[in-house]
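PROTEIN DESIGN WORKSHEET
SECTION A - STRUCTURE
LENGTH: 466
C-ALPHA CELLS:
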C-alpha cells in the first residue's frame, strides 16, 4: 500500500508538470526529478507553473496541486523542535542583502560579453533570462561578462548558476568589478577555487559595502579545458541615493519658434515664456544626463483657458520622450506643476519642448533622477487595481505571452506604464492606439503590471511573461 501511494504521488506530480514521456521504449522507467524540465510544454498545470516560477515565490517553491512536494519540491519548512516562527510580508531579497535590495539584472540594462562564439541557442542573452535550463557557452577558458544597468547601484550580493553539464566548464576563479564609464574599474569581489557540485546550482556571494556603479564586469576562468559555461548571473543592490536634479528656466532657451518672453506676476514674477501656440517650440542645449535610467520631468505651467498639451523630445524632435497634458489654471500666472516619467540613456542632449496644443505659459522645467519611482509606482499600481476603477474595457492577449502582447480598449489612445512584480518602473509609452502589439521579448519571465491611463484616469492590468 505504501509503494502504491508513492507511485501515485509521483505520477500525479509528473502529469501536472508535464514530464511523462509516453514515446520511450519503457514508459515505466523514467526520471521525473529534474525540475528544469517542469512546465516546459502544454498541457500542464498553469496555475502551479505560475506560482512555482522564479520571481513569484521564494526558491521557486509553492504548493499548486496535491503532491506538489514530490522530489524534494516542498515549500514547507520542517523542524523537529519548533519554538517560534517569524513571518514577514513583502518582497524578499534572494541575495541575502537588506530589505532595500533590488534585482539589478531584472530592472533592464545592456548585457555584453568578450566572446560571441557560442553555439546556436547558447548565446549570452541566456545569462539573464531567469531560466537555469539555458546557458551561455564560449570556446575559451577565460572570458568577461558585463552588465550595464539603467541606474547606479551599490552592489550587496550576486549569484552565479552552473550549467546543465560538464562541471569542468564551470567558473572556478573570478573577480567582479564596478565602473561608471566602462573604462575605469574598481574591484568589488574576488573568488578562487569555487566548486559547483551540482548541475544548475545557484550560489550567492556577499559583497562588502561599496560605492554606486552603473557597469558591472565578471572576469571568469573555468575549472579546466578550453570551454567556459554558466547558466545565470544575478546582481542585487540598492539604487544610488544621490539624486540628480536640474532646473532650467524657460526663458533660458537656446533657440525657439513662435514664443515670446513676458514678465510674470505674484510670487513668480521673473520672466516666463508665453504666447505659446500649437507647433511652437523651445530648445535647451547641452544638458548632461549622468546615468541611464528613469527621470521625472516637471513643468511649471499656467493657462487662463482650457490648457493644452506639450511633449519633450531630443535630437530636434526625432525622438519624443513623452507627453503631458497642461490643465487650465484660471489665469496666466496661476502656476501649477505637472510631471511625467521618462527613460533616457546617459549622455549630453539638446532637449526640446514642443506645443502639441497651445494656450499655456511655461515658467521653468526640472529633470530629476526618479529615485522614488519604485515605491511610488508600486503604490499606484496596487491602489489602482484594488479600487477596480472601470474607465474603459481593457484586454491583454495572449496572457501569458512570450514575445508580443496585444492591448485593446474602447478609447482611441492611452498612455502605458510597465511595472515589474515589485512595482519598479520599467518603461513608459504615450499615445498608444488600441490594438497595438507591445514587444515583451526583452523582459525576463515573471509577473508584470501595466498601468493604462485614459483621459487622466488609471487602471492596472497584469500579465505573465513566459
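SECTION B - SEQUENCE
RESIDUE ASSIGNMENT:
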Amino acid at each position: 500500500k505504501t509503494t502504491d501511494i508513492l507511485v501515485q504521488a509521483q505520477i500525479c506530480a509528473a502529469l501536472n508538470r508535464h514530464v511523462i514521456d509516453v514515446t520511450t521504449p519503457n514508459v515505466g522507467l523514467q526520471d521525473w526529478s529534474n525540475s528544469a524540465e517542469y512546465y516546459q510544454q502544454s498541457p500542464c498545470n498553469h496555475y502551479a507553473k505560475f506560482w512555482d516560477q522564479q520571481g513569484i515565490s521564494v526558491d521557486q517553491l509553492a504548493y499548486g496541486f496535491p503532491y506538489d512536494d514530490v522530489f524534494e519540491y516542498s515549500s514547507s519548512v520542517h523542524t523537529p523542535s519548533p519554538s517560534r516562527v517569524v513571518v514577514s510580508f513583502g518582497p524578499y531579497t534572494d541575495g541575502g542583502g537588506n530589505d532595500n535590495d533590488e534585482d539589478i539584472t531584472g530592472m533592464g540594462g545592456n548585457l555584453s560579453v568578450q566572446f560571441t562564439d557560442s553555439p546556436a541557442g547558447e548565446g549570452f542573452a541566456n545569462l539573464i533570462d531567469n531560466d537555469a535550463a539555458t546557458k551561455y557557452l564560449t570556446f575559451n577558458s577565460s572570458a568577461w561578462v558585463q552588465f550595464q544597468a539603467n541606474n547606479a547601484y551599490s552592489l550587496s550580493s550576486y549569484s552565479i548558476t552552473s550549467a546543465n553539464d560538464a562541471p569542468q566548464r564551470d567558473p572556478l576563479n573570478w573577480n567582479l568589478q564596478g565602473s561608471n564609464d566602462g573604462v575605469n574599474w574598481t574591484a568589488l569581489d574576488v573568488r578562487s577555487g569555487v566548486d559547483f557540485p551540482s548541475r544548475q546550482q545557484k550560489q550567492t556571494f556577499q559583497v562588502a559595502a561599496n560605492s554606486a556603479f552603473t557597469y558591472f564586469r565578471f572576469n571568469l576562468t573555468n575549472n579546466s579545458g578550453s570551454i567556459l559555461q554558466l547558466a545565470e548571473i544575478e546582481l542585487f543592490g540598492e539604487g544610488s541615493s544621490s539624486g540628480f536634479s536640474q532646473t532650467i528656466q524657460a526663458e533660458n532657451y537656446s533657440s525657439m519658434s513662435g514664443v515670446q518672453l513676458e514678465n510674470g506676476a505674484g510670487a513668480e514674477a521673473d520672466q516666463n515664456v508665453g504666447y505659446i501656440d500649437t507647433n511652437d517650440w523651445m530648445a535647451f542645449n547641452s544638458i548632461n544626463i549622468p546615468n541611464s535610467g528613469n527621470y521625472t520631468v516637471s513643468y511649471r505651467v499656467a493657462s487662463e483657458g482650457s490648457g493644452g498639451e506639450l511633449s519633450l523630445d531630443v535630437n530636434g524632435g526625432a525622438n519624443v520622450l513623452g507627453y503631458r497634458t497642461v490643465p487650465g489654471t484660471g489665469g496666466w500666472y496661476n502656476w501649477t506643476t505637472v510631471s511625467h516619467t521618462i527613460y533616457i540613456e546617459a549622455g549630453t542632449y539638446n532637449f526640446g519642448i514642443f506645443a502639441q496644443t497651445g494656450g499655456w505659459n511655461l515658467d521653468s522645467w526640472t529633470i530629476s533622477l526618479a529615485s522614488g519611482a519604485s515605491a511610488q509606482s508600486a503604490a499606484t499600481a496596487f491602489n489602482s487595481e484594488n479600487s477596480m476603477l472601470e474607465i474603459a474595457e481593457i484586454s491583454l492577449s495572449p496572457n501569458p505571452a512570450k514575445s508580443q502582447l496585444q492591448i485593446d480598449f474602447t478609447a482611441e489612445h492611452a498612455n502605458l506604464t510597465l511595472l515589474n512584480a515589485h512595482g519598479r518602473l520599467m518603461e513608459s509609452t504615450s499615445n498608444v492606439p488600441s490594438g497595438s502589439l507591445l514587444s515583451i521579448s526583452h523582459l525576463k519571465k515573471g509577473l508584470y503590471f501595466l498601468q493604462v491611463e485614459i483621459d487622466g484616469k488609471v487602471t492596472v492590468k497584469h500579465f505573465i511573461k513566459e
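SECTION C - NOTES
Residues 102-239 form a domain with the Jelly Rolls fold (CATH 2.60.120.260).
Residues 90-97, 371-392 have pLDDT under 50 and may be disordered.
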